[in-house]
Amino acid sequence: xxxxxxxxxxxxxxxxxxxxxxxxxxxxxxxxxxxxxxxxxxxxxxxxxxxxxxxxxxxxxxxxxxxxxxxxxxxxxxxxxxxxxxxxxxxxxxxxxxxxxxxxxxxxxxxxxxxxxxxxxxxxxxxxxxxxxxxxxxxxxxxxxxxxxxxxxxxxxxxxxxxxxxxxxxxxxxxxxxxxxxxxxxxxxxxxxxxxxxxxxxxxxxxxxxxxxxxxxxxxxxxxxxxxxxxxxxxxxxxxxxxxxxxxxxxxxxxxxxxxxxxxxxxxxxxxxxxxxxxxxxxxxxxxxxxxxxxxxxxxxxxxxxxxxxxxxxxxxxxxxxxxxxxxxxxxxxxxxxxxxxxxxxxxxxxxxxxxxxxxxxxxxxxxxxxxxxxxxxxxxxxxxxxxxxxxxxxxxxxxxxxxxxxxxxxxxxxxxxxxxxxxxxxxxxxxxxxxxxxxxxxxxxxxxxxxxxxxxxxxxxxxxxxxxxxxxxxxxxxxxxxxxxxxxxxxxxxxxxxxxxxxxxxxxxxxxxxxxxxxxxxxxxxxxxxxxxxxxxxxxxxxxxxxxxxxxxxxxxxxxxxxxxxxxxxxxxxxxxxxxxxxxxxxxxxxxxxxxxxxxxxxxxxxxxxxxxxxxxxxxxxxxxxxxxxxxxxxxxxxxxxxxxxxxxxxxxxxxxxxxxxxxxxxxxxxxxxxx
Length: 677
Fold this sequence. Notes:
Layout: E1 36-39, E2 45-48, E3 53-55, H1 57-60, E4 65-67, H2 82-97, H3 105-124, H4 136-139, H5 142-145, H6 151-163, H7 165-168, H8 175-184, H9 198-217, H10 219-235, H11 258-264, H12 272-278, H13 282-289, H14 298-318, H15 324-328, E5 335-340, E6 344-351, E7 362-366, H16 370-390, H17 396-400, H18 418-422, H19 434-437, H20 450-459, H21 477-487, H22 497-516, H23 525-546, H24 557-563, H25 572-581, E8 587-589, E9 592-594, E10 626-628, H26 633-647, H27 655-675
Antiparallel strand pairs: 1-2, 3-4, 5-6, 6-7, 8-9, 9-10
Helix pairs in contact: 2-3, 6-8, 9-14, 9-16, 10-16, 14-16, 23-25, 26-27
C-alpha cells in the first residue's frame, strides 16, 4: 500500500485549514483513532478520528455533522457496524486529506450522505463494504437505495475510489461491480423547479405583505410590549433576602398567580394576555398566530416575531432572484438604492452568495417594496439585540456585533425563549421549511384549480403527481426564485390582470438590469444566468403555443403553417434553441402575437391599424406576421369602445380621425377572422 503523506493536507476552504495547524496533515494513513480531525478557532479539539460523530461546525459556520453510525443509536441515523464505520471514516478522510480533497463543507456532506447509504446496506446484509464485489446480489440493491438524481455522481465517486484503491487500502466495487451498477441505474429525468401559478403566487405574496404592513402599523406597540416583558424578567431576576443572583434569568417563568409571586418575592404582572391587551397587540397576536386569548402566552410574542422575520424572508425571495440561503444570511444594512439616470431609483440587495466565493459582495435587483420587508426584519433584529445585551451572560458574539451590521434573521434571545438561550450563537440557525416557517396561508386559497394547473404545467411540463387539481399547492422556498424569474418576463403566457398590475413597477427595471446589463454595478452571476435561461424557456413555451388551434392567421391556414413550420409542439428544447438563435420570434400585441424578427415600424402595441389591415381602404391587408388570438376579444372590444368615443369628437378629415377609422376597420377584420374559426 502506498503512503504518499507528502501529498496529504486539508483542502477545506476555511481560515482554520492552514499548513501549521495541528490537524493539517495526518502522521500516518489511516490516522490513529485519537487523531484530531476538527479543531476550532480557539484550538479546542472538536472531533477526533475515532469519534462516531464528526462536527464540521468550525469550518461551516453552522451545525453540520457526519454520523458514522457506530455510536449511540439515533432515530434519524441508521446503524453502521464498527468495522464498516472505520472503512467509511477512511473514505471520508481521503476526501478530506487526499490530493484534490473537498474544498466545500456542503460538498463533503453531500458525498458522505450518498456513501453512507452503501455502508448501511452492507451492515444490514452482514458484510463489509470492502467485500461488496464478492456479493453481486447485495450490490444490485444499491440502485434501490440511492438518490436517483445523484446516481451518476455516486458512480463517479466509486470509480475514483477504485482507481485510488492502493492508497486508500481497500476496494469497494471493482470494475465488474461498477459496470454492473452502471447498467442497473435508472435514467434520471431532471424535473424543473415548479412555477407557482399567478393566482396562488398573488395570494401568498399579498398575505406576506399584509403581515409585514400590519406589524409595522403596530411597531411602536410591539416594541413597548417587548421591552416591558424583558424588563419584567430582568427585575424578577433579583432574588429576595439578598441571596446570590443566579447565573441567568432564562429559567424563570412568567409568574402564574399572585400567591406564587408573593412566595418567590417576584412581582406579579398578571396573565400575559392582559399585558398584550394593555399594549394593544392582543388582536394582532391572535390574528397572525391563530391562537385564542386562552392560548396566548409570552412565548406567543416570540412566535409572532419569528413569523414576521420569515414573512420578510419570503417577501424578499419573491422580488429578487436570491436563493433562500443567500437571503437567510442578509445583514441589516443589505438594502441599497442606486440612482440611475435612465430609470431613477433602483433598489438592490447586497449579500454573500453561497455558490461563488468571489461574490462575497453580490448584488440582486429587487422591488422598491423590499423596503417594507427589510424594515420589519430590522425591527425584530434590533429588539433581539437589546434583549441579548440585557442578559447577564450575553454571548460574546452578540456583544461583538451589537454595534455592527447584524443578521436580519437570528436566534430568539428573549429570556423566555429556552431554545434561543441554549443555541450556539457563533453558528447560524438552520433554515426551516417554508410550510413550517409561514403558517399564514389559507389551505383553500392554496388549493389548485384547473386554470392554476394548466398555467403551471405550461411553464413546468414535468410537474409531479403532488401538483394536481384539487390538491394543496406544496409551496417551497426554491419555487419563489424560479417563479420570480418567469414573472420578470411579464409574458402573455402567464398574464393575469392582478399579477401584471402588481409586477409592472418591478419587472421593467429588473429585466433591463439583468437582461440588458444597463447597470454599472456587478450583479450576482448566478441570478443573471437564471434570468437569461428562464427568458428563453418562457419564450420557447410561448412559441410552442403558436402551433396550437388557439391562434389563426388572417391570411389563412397556409400562412400560419409557414410561420410555425420550424416549431415542434413536442420538442421544447428545439424551440428554445430557435429562440436563442433569433430564428423564431414571439411578441405580444393587442390582436394576438407578432412573429416578426424585425422591429415593427407601425406600432402594433398601441396602434393596430396595420396589424388588422385597417390602413388599407380598398382591400384588407393584415400584417403577414400576425397571428390572431381569440382570447384577446375582450381587450379588443374595450379598445373599440374607446375608438367610438374618440371618433364622436374627432374632427372630420383630420389625421386623427383617419387613424381612428383605420383601427376601427382592423377591429372589424379581427372579429371577422376569429369568427371563422
